[in-house]
Amino acid sequence: MENRYFQKEIETMPVEELKALQSEKLKKQVKHVYENVPYYRDLMDKKGVKPEDINGIEDLHKLPFLTKADLRDAYPYGLLAKPLKDCVRIQSTSGTTGRRVVAFYTQNDIELWEDCCARAIVAAGGTEEDVCQVAYGYGLFTGGPGLNGGSHKVGCLTLPMSSGNTERQIQFMTDLNATIICCTPSYAAYIGETLEEKGFKPDDIPLKAGIFGAEPWTEEMRRGIEKTLGIKAYDIYGLTETSGPGVAFECSEQTGMHINEDHFLAEIIDPDTGEVLPEGSKGELVFTSLDKEAFPLLRYRTRDICVLSRKKCSCGRTLIKMAKPMGRSDDMLIIRGVNVFPSQIETVLLNEGYQPNYQIVVDRKGNTDTFDVHVEMNPEHFTDTVSGITAKEKALANAMKTMLGINPAVHLVAPKSIVRSEGKAVRVIDKRKLHD
Ligand code: DLL
User: Fold this and answer.
1) What confidence tens digit (pLDDT) does each residue in 68-111 have?
2) What pTM was computed for the model?
3) Ligand 1: which of 180, 237, 247, 249 to mutate, judged by most atoms within 8 Å of the beta carbon?
């Protein structure tokens, strides 16, 4: 496929030029924040840094970090850098993990955000000929509005479906010949499963590409979705704090997501010491938004763990790539002292021939953590004998022990008995928190 870009000059800009552009923008942005956000000015003053000390990206490390705790402290208006009369929109996280983030946008912030999403759609092969079904949630969640705006910019016929009502999703998809779908990977898997049940074969489904993100998903899950829907599945990354989806997006090479570096300056740090790590090291992703007017975060710690790479990409983009985040450091479970990421469990399941329909339940009995993994049987297992099922549970528990170093109790449950998600999947129920 011929490489196409939404903003070619930026997406293929020589790295030295890109860095010079970032340096220019950084200087201006630090000044803007220092002058307009007393909360961050205090942090800079405490660290003894003034805007004049920042002469380019090489000085970035001098700036203080911002964390989720700062966002909480400053809620709702404390990090706003523009008068409210200049802001035209808010978006917000669901707040299910106890933190609610409210992000503000000027009209220009929205334009740039939608450009980022348009870059992602074009990189996935989107053109004005396409019909783009946006099945991320609309409303406060950034997924629907972001991809909706990007789809308009590309000139696709946009189906603003929002998430849920899977019957209607399928009806519109097939009646209107949707060629691109945007939703969470878990919802894509669910739509695929429903299409399969209805007797659709991959060739009967009009889709050619999907743009999936907002939650961690494995390569194995990608292959599963690509097979059932007969599409190429592209990853997209972002967070409410930095606008939403479109901070980074995948190209046809599918080996990591290009970060929109003209708008977002990325660093990887050691999450324990805050030390900046060299390219290729695994650590916590930190972003500085270079253009945002209303809610510009400098050195914002995402908690997402990943790796950056500037290896040459066959798509011609020079933008640095981030690997799939392996989960957030705050998604990590510590069970009997061992670090466990849900994505590790998912990898084992897919390697062992199961679907990624599972739920992890952690609790505490006495002083010991209990660790149960409920996994759906494949339909062909359903008729097995009890001893056959017990043997399968043991085999799966052993494979998980090899991956994690601790032994879970695996329970095979009936197909389709684990609740499906139309947005971000709920993979973990940690009951220990109830006792704390
Ligand atoms: O999930 C924005 C988004 C919408 C991204 C649609 C992509 C598509 P939040 O709800 O604020 O924003 O959650 C952000 O989700 O810090 C990551 O931990 C996780 N996340 C987002 N995209 C990916 C991805 C949206 N592609 C948090 N892979 C982030 C893994 C992801 N994790």
Assistant:
1) 899 989 999 999 999 999 999 999 986 655 568 899 999 999 99
2) 0.90
3) 237
Residue 208 beta carbon below 6 angstroms from any ligand 1 atom: no
Ligand 1 site, residue 100, Cβ cutoff 6 A: no
Q: Output Rg (C-alpha) for the chain, integer angstroms.
A: 22
Cα dihedral 248, 252, 256, 258, rounded to 10, equals -30
Residue 398 has φ and ψ, to the nearest 5°, of: -65, -40
Q: Confirm if 27 and 55 have CB atoms less than 8 A apart.
A: yes
Say how far apart CA 141 and CA 89 lie, in whole Å. 12
Contacts of 169 (CB under 8 A, 6+ apart): 133, 135, 161, 191
Q: What is the pLDDT of residues 380-427, one digit of tens each?
A: 877 778 999 999 999 999 999 999 988 999 999 999 999 888 888 888
Q: Distance, CA 215 to ligand 1 centroid (Å)?
A: 5
Which one-letter DSSP state was computed for residue 155? Answer: T
